[in-house]
Specification:
The chain contains 12 helices and 11 strands. It is of the alpha/beta class and 302 residues long. Helix 10 crosses helix 11. The radius of gyration is 19 Å and the shape is globular.
Amino acid sequence: MRTPTTSRPTRLAAAAALAFGLLVLSACGASSTGAGKASATTGTLRVSGSTTVNPVAADAASALRTKDLTITVDTQGGSAGGITQLGQGQIDIAMSSKPVGDADKAMFAKTDFVSTRIGADAVGIVVRKEVYDGGLTAITKDQLRMLFEGKITNWKQLGGPDLATFVYDKEPGRGTREVLDKFLYGKTGKAPAPPTDNARYAVVGGNEETRTKLESTQGSVAPLSTGFVLGHPKLVALTVAGITPTNDHVADNTYPLSRPLFLVTNGPPTGAAKAFIDYVLSAPGQALVTKHDYLTLAQLKV
């Protein structure tokens, strides 16, 4: 999903410069428990959640080095896991590839979820290249629904090669799964129960696991952030409902599986959390968004 990109004006350059003097990365690992707000520039800043947002956050943490603050970046439970950890006061920043939902707000009524958008990406319907080269380059909404409901067992049913399908679906709560379910089943996103009797259907977690499964399984398909396809020639993203997942189609929201990317805090970000988020919003931080083949705020005209 690569098209020419535009650098974002350095409207937060001052904040970025401050951030360089505040933060340091240690090893990535599980988030430790503690207060849910980072109000100081020393100690530990805990970041967890979406595997889509993770590469940007990890690179931002790596870029911000001093001796006073340790940053842990984790992907426990994906977007839903990050939102839950923030609501429980276990982390300072949740990474999310979906908006915080009404159910989350009701469950954690004492948490003031404040979402800062850092960019956007596309959920691709990604197949192995032999499926694409065998004639299936595009898929309709109805075909996609039948595929994930286990009603399509051979790619020739959709005009592709005579090859058995293998569907890797995302586990509930993942931002990728929510985007797909809302596209297929409307605003509520209530999908039917998965086909338990289908030996060629499996549930996977994060983006890296999904990509590994796709690359190692002939005839496979999965919803996957298109940023994770870059540099992996065995994988191709299909045209969906007549729209290709290009930057232009994500920016104008015509690609039906486009989604925003967020950093979420409990209340307006302060202290180290604010410095970290300000850096991601700055020109150097937005360059990291581009590096991972996502769209910047400038490209989205936000």
